[in-house]
Write a structure and sequence with these properties.
The chain is mainly α. 54% of the residues lie in helices and 2% in strands. A two-stranded antiparallel ribbon has the order 1-2. The longest helix is centred in the C-terminal third of the chain and has 25 residues. The two termini are 14 Å apart. The C terminus is likely disordered.
Length: 176
């Protein structure tokens, strides 16, 4: 079974999908300054997952083109289907690695430029989860400005990622 933090990441991804499901390509490409376009946000999170779980963890880059969505890169508004294709491909490629994470491994650090990265793998996993929630809030604000009134009004099926004593003890199991 996956580590509880990996379960939380997968739940967060499902909420990301739920929160952006009804967005059209035209809406996703709107850039309402100073906020990012929704299609950019999708590409940006694909970039982060690729960086952490493929490039740093495994030394491979599945889709080099998503680097244009990296931190500090110029603003862009890619087509929605392009952003989702990249996100789906990268998250699917990342999942086998994520399934190997143990409490011990989460305390280790990737080597970046021959030195240990300042954040442990576990801290980076938390960073990705929080980053999704940050951009999900931003995306919901964009949706409101676009006139959407059918926004999710609360976190969804939390029973898919419940808290249990195992999570605090570092075990991968859960009771359901």
């Amino acid at each position: 079974m996956p580590h509880p933090l990996v379960t939380q990441l997968r739940f967060t991804r499902s909420e990301w999908l739920r929160g952006l499901e009804p967005v059209t390509d035209e809406e996703a490409r709107r850039h309402l300054r100073p906020m990012n376009s929704i299609s950019w946000m999708i590409g940006h999170l694909a970039w982060q997952e690729q960086l952490y779980w493929l490039t740093r963890a495994q030394g491979r880059t599945l889709l080099p083109e998503v680097e244009r969505f990296g931190f500090g890169q110029p603003m862009s508004t890619p087509p929605l289907d392009e952003a989702w294709r990249a996100w789906r491909a990268i998250t699917a490629a990342a999942d086998p690695f994520l399934d190997t994470l143990t409490p011990e491994r989460l305390l280790t650090h990737y080597q970046v430029d021959g030195k240990p990265h300042r954040e442990s793998i576990g801290t980076q996993l938390q960073r990705v989860i929080y980053h999704y929630w940050f951009h999900l809030g931003e995306a919901q604000a964009v949706r409101q400005l676009l006139g959407h009134t059918d926004l999710p009004d609360f976190v969804g099926e939390i029973s898919k990622a419940p808290y249990g004593p195992e999570a605090s003890a570092g075990s991968a199991g859960h009771h359901g």
